[in-house]
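step=encode ok
step=design start
structure_in=
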């Protein structure tokens, strides 16, 4: 398996954005993002996450340099940070997950979808044993649900017929809907993305 390039320059490039590894200097930005109740409400923290800048720095130190399982920052091409992205490691069943969180002033411009496409493309390109990418947005989180559907995410129904055993991936709380983007169903229509 090819080893993804470790770079601060940007590990993924999309037409309008760069996704790069977070550095300790990003702690104040992540604090602002994670303290925003509008961003965090649908992941269970309507009053913000409650981590201090120092606690975020410690977290970033532990995860420094990790592309899979580390903190990633999404920026505009001029370097302005607009949000964060995450790609997990792949598990033993061939499943990984992604996450995207943007500052509210950048919602609704197609950036979320652009990042999701970039993340999925990068993962399917670089992890040969990756079979599916899961996400479990809150059922009321329409932008996130539409983002999953737009890249080929399939809403998973218990008892359905899928190429892998999906039972372990159902969220405990029925307020959340499981989606999976299987390798064959992925829709990635962006013209440019980086390859290692
Ligand atoms: C979820 C999130 C990343 C989406 O990013 P975004 O840039 O706002 O989304 P996009 O502009 O790419 O739009 C994605 C889809 O949602 C739709 N959408 C965007 N805002 C919407 C809104 N307020 N209501 C309904 N649909 C909306 C878009 O039309 C698009 O659907 P389409 O492809 O059918 O046209 C962003 O809203 C966010 O950061 N939310 C807070 C954190 C969060 O909930 N993260 C996801 C955790 S699962």
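sequence_out=
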């Amino acid at each position: 398996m090819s080893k993804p390039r470790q770079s601060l320059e940007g590990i993924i490039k999309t037409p309008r954005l760069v996704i790069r590894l977070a550095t300790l200097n990003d702690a104040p930005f992540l604090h602002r993002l994670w303290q925003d109740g509008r961003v965090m409400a649908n992941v269970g923290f309507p009053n913000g996450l409650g981590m201090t800048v120092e606690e975020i720095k410690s977290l970033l130190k532990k995860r420094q340099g990790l592309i899979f399982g580390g903190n990633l920052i999404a920026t505009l091409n001029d370097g302005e940070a607009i949000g964060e992205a995450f790609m997990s490691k792949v598990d033993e069943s061939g499943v990984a997950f992604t996450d995207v969180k943007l500052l509210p002033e950048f919602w609704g411009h197609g950036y979320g979808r652009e990042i999701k496409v970039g993340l999925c493309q990068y993962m399917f390109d670089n992890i040969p044993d990756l079979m599916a990418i899961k996400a479990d947005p809150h059922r009321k989180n329409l932008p996130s649900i539409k983002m999953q559907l737009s890249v080929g995410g399939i809403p998973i129904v218990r008892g359905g017929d899928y190429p892998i055993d999906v039972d372990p991936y159902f969220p405990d709380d029925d307020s959340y809907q499981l989606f999976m983007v299987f390798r064959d169903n992925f829709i990635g229509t962006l013209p440019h993305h980086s390859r290692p």
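step=design ok
step=annotate ok -> The longest strand covers residues 95-102.
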